[in-house]
Amino acid sequence: MAVQISPSILSADFARLADEAARVAGVADWLHVDVMDNHFVPNLTLGLPVVEALLKSVSTPVDCHLMIEDPDRWAVGYAEAGARSVTIHAEAAKAPVRTLRAIRKEGARAGFALNPATAVDAYEDLLPEIDMLLLMTVEPGFGGQSFIDGVLPKIRRARQLVSKHGLEVWIQVDGGVADETIERCAEAGADVFVAGNAVYGRDDPAAAVQALRALAEGA
Ligand code: DX5
Ligand code: ZN
C-alpha cells in the first residue's frame, strides 16, 4: 500500500483557494476539501458551488469529505461535479449502500468515515462497497486539534478486516496528523494521510508534504 498525502485546505487561505491548491500541486496526491454544514458538525465551510469552482482551477484530484447531514441527498452531486473521491459519514448516512454505489457509479471513489467513538466492526460487511475508510483522529469540525491516540487500535482493527477479506480498501486518517503522529498512523495500517495545519500552517506547504510522506514511508 503506497503512502498518499491529502493536504486539507481547511487550514489554507479561503480567499485564495486556487493559489493555495497550487502550492501543493505536483507533490500532493489529493486535495482534501472539508464540506461542513453547521448541523452534522458545529462549523460551516463551503458547498458544491465552491467545489465546482475549485475543480475548474486545480490539477490535483479532489477528495471531498462531507461532514453534513443527509449525505444520501448531496453526495452524488460532488461526484457528478468531478470530485475523484467523495466520503460520507456513517453517523449521518441513512442509506449508505445506495449512496456509496451512487458515488461509484459516477466514477468517483466511495469513502466512508467513522468518528472517533464509532466502532469499525459493525461495518465489516459494508467493506466491499467502500474504496476508502476514513478514520477520524479528532472529533470532526475544526482544524488544528490534537491527535486522539485512542483511535490507533481501530486503525489496526480496520487494517485486519480489510486484509481478512482480501480487499483493496484504503485507510485514511484525518485530524492532528503531523510530523509527530504520522508514523504511528502508518505503523497501525493507515495509508492515506490528511494534514491541514501540518501543511498549510507551514511556510513551505510542498516541503511539509514531502516531509510527511518520508516519515510515513519510513514507518
Ligand atoms: C476536521 C477536518 C480535517 C481538518 C484536519 O474535521 O475533517 O480535514 O482539516 O486538520 P488538521 O490536520 O489541522 O487537524
Ligand atoms: Zn477532513
Task: Describe the structure concisely.
With about 220 residues, the chain is an alpha/beta fold. It has helices spanning about 15-20, 50-55, 70-80, 95-105, 150-165, 180-190, 195-200, 205-219, and strands at about 5, 30-35, 60-65, 85-90, 110-115, 130-135, 170-175, 190-195.
Describe this structure as you would to a colleague.
By secondary structure, this protein is an alpha/beta fold. It has one domain (4-218): Aldolase class I (TIM Barrel), CATH 3.20.20. It contains eight helices and eight strands, in the order βαβαβαβαββαβαβαα. It has helices at 17-22, 48-57, 71-81, 96-105, 152-164, 182-188, 197-200, 205-218, and strands at 4-7, 31-36, 62-67, 85-89, 109-114, 132-136, 170-174, 192-195. It has an eight-stranded parallel beta sheet. α3 links the parallel β3 (62-67) and β4 (85-89). α3 (71-81) packs parallel to α4 (96-105) and α6 crosses α8 (205-218). The chain is globular, with a radius of gyration of 16 Å. The two termini are 13 Å apart. D-xylitol-5-phosphate is lined by residues 8, 10-11, 32, 34, 65, 138, 140-145, 174-177, 194-198. Zinc ion (ZN) is lined by residues 8, 32, 34, 65, 174, 194.
